Amino acid sequence: MRHWHWLIEWDTPTLGHIKAIKRVVYSGRSKYQDIIVIETYEYGLALVLDGKTQSTEFDEFIYHEALVHPAMILHGAPRKVLILGGGEGATLREVLKYGSVERAVMVDIDEEVIRVCREHMRFMNEGVFEDKRVSLVIGDALDYVFNTNEAFDVIIADLSDPIVEGPSYKLYTREFYSRVGEILSPNGVFVTQATSPTNTPETHAVIYSTARSVFPKTTYYHIFIPSFEALWGFVITSKTLDPRGLDPERVDEALARHGVKTRFYDSIAHIHMFSVPRNLREFIERESRVSTFDNPVYMPA
Ligand code: SAM
Question: What is the pLDDT of residue 1?
Answer without folding.
Answer: 60
